[in-house]
């Protein structure tokens, strides 16, 4: 199958290139970048020498549509909502790694993203691409709204307990911690090595655009409107997201019962790994891979459940899950091209 | 004044040495280390060349008592409870950086530290050394139980709102994040650079020995028995602790009102700095200094308060606060020797 | 083909496991560890959950010999020289990642490794496994002495110019810089995160055991006895080695001529990438991959050549090159299982 | 004494602020920044809250000249050469941390800095501020050209052996390694955390503007024209420079003799610390301090001397040495305000 990448010059695009190289059924035919059109990929990313000798092209709708079967969008927010409709008309399937089509309620997009929403028709037709939860819809999707990194870690972490109604959806608090690659390859003082190294910062507390995305999908799971408290912190590492989630239990449940519920729920999910009692995930244990690792503890002193969920933000939180979705859409084995062992140490 | 350091070979001891060098009223007369007795300090820490040319000695109660007026204990837990009574008998004031005398209820020590408790008489006579909250008791103290790093950040972060009864003590959740120096200079696979770098891990969730210390002092502030949910995470940095605290509001309060309350409460406290709305602390902004930086936000969507509190775990969370307490005990200006500007970048 | 790994619990062993998972012709049948025998691999390395569910076994010569065709040794120095002969007798091919069989002159081993040498018969039969230089010998080898990390970067960096006699072998100076994973998963104060982070140290200057290994192979290339100056430095990163090499030119040559020579020499070598003028390698550009990146500059002011060579010490400097050698020994395509794109960022 | 800082918003300026806070004889009256004039210092650097509550002002020659006795210039290259003459006319002493007045030969400035040179009169009157070597000239200086970070480490490392004529000046090779703060607070893709972390890069090899500065001062020491080979590498740390220097011995000398020579030469220099045989400097051992640590080894196999020299680039390599020079100019004790213990760990 022939694929293209719009926004190939960012970290999400480059991670797609890394992973697609391992994929036996796919060839990358087009790499598009608005800001660096005309450059060779290797000028921007010398690590791709001998691997991808292509040039970054400007966007040419017809030219791309003739040459690819599926497109990945790894563009900044606000871009894909303008372009994807043109490719859908031409029957090119699209997987969008940005947030443009994730919120069914366009007004929420306008509020949290400070931008005009996509056409409602497209919002309603888009499929939210959290593979483990929405596999059957993804299979028939034409436009996949690939989830954000924090929502992926959070929703996989909450799903079994919330589905089982063992926890109170009104009590959800999520403490998110992210490596700096989530900020993209954008120059700003706050992203400089000298400012980030040996440093941890809180940022955008209560203002992060992933809040409505999480809330929308918690409602899909629980059937109830849900308001969450969600905070975000920058950690001095390049890759990795960890969400520590706090939630009140509806009844008294022991840690082991909770772990059993999670293991049972995810027993057929290769990419979700549930830890044993008192063992906790570490982001490095998923680096470079599509795994989501989850640890659980019932705090019996306060009757709360603590969930710790870790992913590589660029893989399961972006490019890896996009490829997982592509596999589902094509009826390929879901692990195809994604059986990468985490890079440890 | 002549001081000594028991446990001078650990990171806490070495940080005391760094800070005491700037102190105009103090000379370090004795540096004691059980594990490295007989070594020169500079063999263990070459950065001290030209600064401290002393030898690490073995413990000799009489010899020390004759030569110092005040002792700092930077020993692993379980050590000072055996030795401090011998010095108190000899009228040497003691500041203990370990947890041995922090819990008034010795049974809690036995449960959380898995060790026998100190004599009850000493537990009751010890003064909890969170300077900003217990200054007058510290002034007359002979045995100061210097607070743990997480409790310092947490209690300073909660004090004004809890004192004002604006928040519900039953709802407190603390998400703690720490640099690796908190683990001390102990060799274990989990502390190796290759295991910690580019990694974030949760650890000891619900089991951390700082839980009863925080709860005991929350009760002192609020008058109510309190159970907290407390989690801890290792962040790939050497210094710094950040606690993100979640708590339900008792009534509707705006962020700015909360900030005003904190600014008012701490208006005479040089070492506590309250951030403006939507500005958040970063651990590097306190590195090497005795500051505690606090950011605040009322999440109006969920009626919760989010508090972010940051300190350098080795300074305000250990050696710096110990010196601050020594200053109070001696009626010196509290900032003496502690006006260090954070090392940034 | 069935393979086993002796010393599977170290970083070299674990990196073999990561890479072999991608290899289409190989199954790992045995993972042996002296120090952690009886443990599941996932207890030592949770990142291997769902990937390798094997147990670390103790060494059982007969049992292993019956079950594998080829063995990798990722053992500390001094181990394989005792064990490999037992497997060679049983016609199991061996690839040794340690230094035990690299030096033809056993006395040099004794001097630099402070240990008794292997049997001379085995030393003489061992093939030095720097694939690009000794491919034909490796093809027929039964015992491959896989090169050290510094020698790999150094020899690939010097080979074309030395072979062409454009540089003076008596003038070679090598400034080596390594990430900390080269020190293995060994607990020592010097390897702790708090000691390594934000730190760079020189170590073992003039004493490193890779000196005789480099000199032996420089003589193979140039035909002359050679003495090098070689220094080593620890850099606060987990993976990566960079060698900056200084050497006097025999005649006046321009940078571009030198680059052309290197490009021509390595034109059929997928894993060696020569940079253009004034472009320099970075270790992250090879992380997780088997590439060796080389940059070159003639310093016309001093008539010296500067060579910068970068590899991932655990891949091209250890496990990756071992697999490359296995591919050569089996007449598989040399890239089999090794077409991994560097993990960037 | 009243001082001002021109370029107070960069890392050099902020480090001056940190150090001057400890200085008993100085008050900072003016902080000038072209790019952020009108901002409070704490807006740019929140770590300065409660410490410096001043505003960054635009440059006003008369206003500054009336209010300060001495000015520090921490400006990008090309700025101070225009402004310093105006202050010299007004009898304000100037210490310039940029390279504008370091090269006596203005043509070399034009070649290496790609900019027009300062007036020759000022170039000739400027005093090169490597304190340990040029103390008496500095004492009477009005315009101090504070040395670059690499030259400081290099020249202190070479001085005793070169002065003693034990080494061949024609053979000097310097392998420089620097933390990223040397690049300043400038946004560029190459300085982003995600690009620098877990990465080491060579850069500007043979092109660095510190080459003529080093060569000029080597000639002052040895009396001979000298050409060096000098390379530079970025290391994933914020602070710290290490120079590893290779040089041929003129005669056979043992390591201990060399160490003795260095200890003798620097016996009265508090800030230069010579290591014992087989002990090597580490950058973290000087972090935050004005020390320069030097390790030495004669490689008897090749008759070369290896020198390893480490400083904190922002302290001894910039702001600290500037203050040391100010102390000399004012006949204050040279250590005044600079007795900071390195921040370790």
From TrEMBL, chains A, B, C, D:
PANTHER family: N-ACETYL-GAMMA-GLUTAMYL-PHOSPHATE REDUCTASE, CHLOROPLASTIC-RELATED (PTHR32338:SF10), N-ACETYL-GAMMA-GLUTAMYL-PHOSPHATE REDUCTASE, CHLOROPLASTIC-RELATED-RELATED (PTHR32338). Keywords: Amino-acid biosynthesis, Arginine biosynthesis, Cytoplasm, NADP, Oxidoreductase. Residues 2-141 form the Semialdehyde dehydrogenase NAD-binding domain. Transmembrane segments: none annotated. It is an enzyme of class 1 (oxidoreductase). This is N-acetyl-gamma-glutamyl-phosphate reductase. It comes from the Bacteria. One of its GO terms (molecular function) is N-acetyl-gamma-glutamyl-phosphate reductase activity. The active site is at residue 149. Pathway: Amino-acid biosynthesis; L-arginine biosynthesis; N(2)-acetyl-L-ornithine from L-glutamate: step 3/4. Catalyzes the NADPH-dependent reduction of N-acetyl-5-glutamyl phosphate to yield N-acetyl-L-glutamate 5-semialdehyde.
